[in-house]
TrEMBL record:
Keywords linked to the UniProt accession: Transferase, Ubl conjugation pathway
Presence of the UniProt keyword Coiled coil in the record: no
Record-annotated UBC core domain positions: 41-205
GO terms classed as biological process: negative regulation of apoptotic process
Record PROSITE patterns: UBC_2 (PS50127)
Annotated GO MF terms: cysteine-type endopeptidase inhibitor activity; transferase activity
UniProt protein name: UBC core domain-containing protein
InterPro entries named among the record's database cross-references: UBC, UBQ-conjugating_enzyme/RWD
Organism for this UniProt entry: Strongylus vulgaris (Blood worm)
Key word NAD present: no
Length: 225
């Protein structure tokens, strides 16, 4: 039962080869013949990785990874990662599209972040509102040589890296976040004092509207782990 929950099959491509669900890399799908003899080793590698995933994917109450594979093509994947408890991401689901390029495993899989509020929301410095994911293993971010993609890497490593980005961001950045919040409070105090002297410069955002949420978030940031 656990295997079925963490990894399942779905029909992404319907009759006449048309996608039945939105997918970022539709052009790559059209331009790739997965049954080509030249891509045989690629297909074997992908199938081998997917076969090992049900026993490796994390599945727990606080943070899980779910993988959905097209029933006819193993190179078309959707992923859901749940947000961890005690963070602003708790109870959230983050959706990703994944496609294996023809050069796989010598090139990393293509990944796109979909949970962006139609391009209006950026939840994380590494997850852009245009769908870009900044990670060394994907070749979209500079990093140490050992962090970059090689043919020995796998999709599982990519997914765990994305999961860590979601899990660790607020813990790693908590001091900077708190420092910035304190600076905002100082600025708001000045604005409030100026508004008292000059009613024409009153701000709609009051000092209390920032001060109170800061004191609610502060203990959580320090006690994250």
């Amino acid at each position: 039962m656990q295997k079925q929950i963490k990894e399942f099959v779905f029909r992404f491509i319907g009759d006449y080869g048309k996608l039945v669900t939105p997918y970022t890399f539709k052009k790559d799908i059209r331009n790739t013949n997965p049954f080509s003899p030249s891509l045989r080793e690629r297909t074997k590698r992908i199938a081998k990785e997917l076969a090992s995933m049900p026993n490796a994917l994390p599945l727990n109450a606080s943070n899980s990874i779910f993988v959905c594979v097209d029933e006819g093509r193993c190179d078309i994947i959707k992923v859901l990662i749940s947000g961890p408890d005690d963070t602003p991401y708790a109870n959230g689901l983050f959706e990703f599209d994944v496609f294996f390029p023809t050069s796989y495993p010598y090139s990393p899989p293509k990944c796109a972040f979909l949970t962006t509020g139609a391009g209006n929301v950026r939840f994380n410095p590494n997850l852009y509102n245009d769908g870009k994911i900044c990670l060394s293993i994907l070749g979209t971010w500079e990093g140490r040589p050992e962090e970059k993609w090689s043919s020995y890497c796998s999709l599982m490593q990519v997914l765990v890296s994305i999961q860590k980005v979601i899990l660790r961001h607020f813990w790693l950045k908590r001091h900077a976040i708190i420092r910035q919040a304190k600076n905002w409070i100082v600025e708001m105090r000045k604005d409030a004092a100026e508004a008292e002297r000059n009613p024409k410069r009153r701000e709609s955002l009051t000092f209390e509207s920032l001060y109170n949420p800061y004191h609610q978030v502060n203990p959580k940031l320090y006690n994250f782990w």
